[in-house]
Amino acid sequence: MAERSAERTTERTVGGIAERASGWSPGRAGSVGTGLLAYRLVAGAWLRSALAYRWQFWLELTGNALITFLDFAVLAVMYAHVRHLGGFSLAEAGFLYGTSGVCLGLADTLMGSTERLGDRIRDGSLDVVLLRPAPALAQLAADRFALRRLGRVVQGGAVLGWSLAALPVQWTWGRAVMVPLLLVCGTAIFCAVFVVGAAFQFWAPGGAEAQNALTYGGGTLLQFPPTVFGRELVRGVVYGVPLAFVNWLPAMYVLGRPLPFGLPPVLRFGAPVAAVVCAAVAGAAWRAGLRSYRSTGS
Amino acid sequence: MADTEIRSGGPPVSLYAAVAAGGFRRYATYRAATAAGVVANTAFGFVIAWTYVALWRARPHLAGYDLGSAVTFAWIGQALVATVALWGGGFQYDLDDRIRTGDVAVDLARPVDQQAWWLASDVGRAGFEVLIRGTVPMLIGALCFPLRFPSGGAAAAALAWAATAVSVLLAVVVSFGVRYMVALIGFWSGASSGPRQLMAVIGMVLSGLVVPLPLFPPALAALAQALPWSCVLQIPADVFLQRDTGAGLARALGEQLAWAVVLLACGRLVQRRAARRVVLQGG
Asked: Which of residues 207-266 of A touch B (CB under 8 A)?
């Protein structure tokens, strides 16, 4: 019921954008500004409809945060048997776990809905999205916007906060600035991965699960110290799919550790560049996917 | 009146066999989804297997698993996660939708047993999943890690393989029993996506998918092993790794069977109450 009313609100909302934004072309109208406006309005509509069932909303958010704590239990269980895993203490692993959780959680909240592109292609509702006078990506990303996905962020943030307090790190300005920078760039990289995954579904509408390997699989990978994994895997997520820039590389700077496997030390500061490159690649992939879309033809 | 007469006769077993075959064929057509699933399972398999290598190198023979068994445990988890639908899914999405839209009223009017119908379709689905998603990631894992397959002479190995097959089938039924009741919540709350997500996370931890249950602190391990989720993954994995042999094997399979029976019986009870609600709302 909530969904249907929000769907109707979306129609009205996007109609409103048409009046505010001048000159649009179907599906990929205008500027970044129009996109952000569309995102804000659509997400707001979904948020209001979720808040209409207030107790259910708070129950889901709390439940989500509590339940994701079970996830941290795994790491705690492992550290109950060893003092160091791959040479990293629990506090250091907690830093990796927390940053990975916050970045993935934020990206999932902001962009996670694009995962359902394949469903929209299959049931034909993507055509409706393309007809509306607002950028398709903004609409799809804001579709079914659900604050309860922040549960992972809350939980990751709590673990991160604990690890920051527990880490025996000499705090300098550089290290202190690196933490928020890491969170912003890491979120951007994961957002880009979500968009590339969605774009991939233009060619393989049933292949939504493959991107889980990079999003949730990547999130799990980054929870553990890089030294746990093989040299090839680590090099793959540095030079191939640059997930290592989400937290592994900047975290080595914060934790005052050398980069493993002889990686050049300058990579510790490469996250902003990686984020920009990822965003550019994601944008190109999305536009290519959108261009190749041919509806069902019926 | 005619309705009850047909029901009392009960539909033939061949009907449910046909439903199961349909479930198998249906999932066999989702080729892109299957390939995508194999990719995801393989990626997770590598991540978890590497963490186990680090853990077991630091603590050899932890919880009675040697390094080979531990790494194999990681890959068995990925091989079975889709088969037993640990994250929810399979028939669950269909039934959720039908409850939400009210189509379930049509299902209830059909002269078939609801629970048996959905169970048959889910067993068919699981049959296809185990064939592709159960084997391909495992084979890739075997190429990169020293996996432990059933051993100890032809007879012992054959017994372990056969026991694993039975154990996996029972795991699917136990998992179905849980998911069926979660789906039935929809009759009361209108949407069961919340409980479904909750069950997915609980199942992930309490089944042993992420960490074998014997690694938990003793009290928590005992609790987890007493709950049905241990039947979904921990037991089939231990049967495959030949940790349960002889009387232990019989006890493990018996525990799975007991949970399967209990959960199916509870499901029938809840279903009867749920069906009454539909009649009340519709009338």
From this structure: 207-214, 217, 220-221, 224, 227-230, 233
pLDDT above 90 as % of chain B: 58
Query: Under an 8 A CB cutoff, do B194 and A60 touch?
Result: yes
For A208, A272, B22, B81, the CA distances from B29, given in Å and listed in that order, are 15, 42, 11, 20
What are the distances in angstroms from CA A254 to CA A92, A162, A168, A181, A231?
Answer: 10, 15, 11, 11, 22
Tokens at A76, concatenated: 């705690």
For the stretch B138-182, pLDDT in tens is 999 999 999 999 988 899 999 999 999 999 999 999 999 999 998
**Selected residue of A212, A222, A223 to mutate for chain B interface (largest B Cβ count, 10 A):** A212
Label residue A226 exposed, middle or buried (CB < 10 Å: 0-12, 13-18, 19+): buried
What residues of chain A lie within 8 A of the CB of B204, using their CB? 70
Q: Where are the alpha helices (DSSP H) in chain B?
A: 2-9, 13-29, 31-58, 67-81, 91-101, 104-109, 114-132, 136-144, 153-184, 186-189, 193-206, 218-226, 229-232, 234-240, 247-282
8 Å CB contact between B258 and B105: no
- Taking CB atoms and an 8 Å cutoff, what residues of chain A touch B36? 204, 206-211
pLDDT, mean of residues A66-85: 84
- Mean pLDDT over the full length of chain A: 85
The one-character DSSP state at A88 is B
User: Are A228 and B62 within 8 A, CB to CB?
Assistant: no
Task: State the burial class of residue B118 (Cβ atoms within 10 Å of its Cβ: 0-12, 13-18, 19+).
Answer: buried
Q: How far apart are CA A70 and CA A23, in angstroms?
A: 50
For testing contact with chain B, the best of A62, A64, A67, A75 (most B CBs within 10 A): A67
* pLDDT tens column, A240-289: 889 999 999 999 999 999 998 889 999 999 999 999 999 999 999 999 99
Provide the CB-side half-sphere exposure for A130 (13 A, CA): 13
Non-local CB neighbours of B135 within 8 Å, separated by 6+ positions: B79
